[in-house]
Description:
- Helices cover 32% and strands 30% of the residues.
- The chain has a single domain (4-239), classed as Rossmann fold (3-Layer(aba) Sandwich), CATH 3.40.50.150.
- It contains 9 helices and 11 strands.
- The chain is of the alpha/beta class.
- The two termini are 34 Å apart.
- The protein has a 7-stranded mixed β-sheet with strand order 3-2-1-4-5-11-10, sandwiched between helices. Strands 6-7 form a two-stranded antiparallel sheet. A two-stranded antiparallel sheet has the order 8-9.
- It binds S-adenosylmethionine (SAM).
Amino acid sequence: xxxxxxxxxWSRFADEWTTWARAPDHDAFWAYRASLLAFIGRGAGEAxxxxxxxxxVSRVLKDCGYQVTAIDPVERLIKAAEQAGSADTYKVAAAAxxxxxxxxxxxxxxxxxxxxxxxxxxxxxxxxxxxxxxxxLVISIVHPFADRGRxxxxxxxxxxxxxKSYFGRERFEGTEARNGLQMHFAGWSQxxxxxMAALESAQFAVTSxxxxxxxxxxxxxxxxxWNKVPLFLWLKARILxx
Length: 242
Ligand SMILES: C[S@@+](CC[C@H](N)C(=O)[O-])C[C@H]1O[C@@H](n2cnc3c(N)ncnc32)[C@H](O)[C@@H]1O
């Protein structure tokens, strides 16, 4: 399998994603947005949104006070981000080949993007190159544990079932349908240790780790379950001095 399979996937489903991601309170993102803003924190300087999609994370970064550059390998998504005024600058680019000079950014954010990249160490090394030495990398991934199991039903107390092993790396593909919308997801599922190994090989050290729960106002039955098992894993990492 070559690594463009992910870009191909997102090119194919770009419009579907834009509709899914922008529907008010539809995607889980909205139940965590306030916590994400708090985790990133207010800042100044230049931020890079890696794999910006239609631009919702760029808009969070703008709200945090950053000057934002948004990149995504899918032209249609970059256009959607631009049409919504999400960032200050836009480029069609993949994480492994960033069209920026060394040490340009104070902050890089890869929000639910590393699961869509086959060569995570390669992408992280390139992100390290464009970060300032004291810059911060913020990562969100679907929690590797949540990724491997599923709730037995929609009710808040449904048991969480892990059918396969937590360990190992595998490709996932699936469709989610809800409230008249659907989204085709695909990517790579791997345990936390693989992400840590990728960070280590790119010479990043993790400085913060969060397992966020949905914001209180979003504790409806669909999201309530995610108070039992973490849906997302958030990390902050800094470049290790060489
Ligand atoms: C789940 S979406 C997340 C989009 C955005 N970060 C958000 O949370 O709204 C995954 C994004 O990763 C992008 N992507 C796929 N392969 C990529 C790569 N090699 N480098 C950077 N982004 C990539 C896709 O085009 C898509 O926009």
